[in-house]
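QA checklist item 7 of 12: single-chain prediction sanity check.
[x] sequence parsed
[x] length recorded as 167
[x] structure emitted
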Amino acid sequence: MATLQLTSKRTIGYIVFDILALAFIYLVPTISHMLSFPLYLIEPMRIALILALVHTTKRNAYIIALTLPIFSYLVSAHPVFYKMLLISGELVLNVWLFYFILGRTKNAFVSILSSIVASKAIYYMAKLIAVALILKTGESIIATSLTIQVATTLVFSVYLGLMFRRR
């Protein structure tokens, strides 16, 4: 009985986490406007994904990775459809690579750092193909400066590495 209560409390906690993640993504434009700072630069979907990796389950991290871009597209039409697909793919790949590398290295910092860099590289290759060859638009391939991307990647990696070390 105690195990069942603990399991249902955890499940409720994961559901609350998911609702808060969705609310955060929904409110990013409003918060950005209030702060006069474009929050998309610090990758709010990846923040939610990192928090899911640390504070929920592997399964829930996949759910977050897959659904946040779709939810954002449905409520705000941003990112545009093809980019939403690319971002969903990148985040799902990020989760898969994280657990794959973690299983081999047993080092959470190396695993998350490597998985973010690799999933971003694949995302940009796919975006290059989509923009240059398929869509034939003049859209820039890299919208957020590489300096900001390196900084956020390091911050996310340090946080996850420290939190996994505490476990």
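[x] summary fact logged: The mean pLDDT is 89.
[ ] second reviewer sign-off
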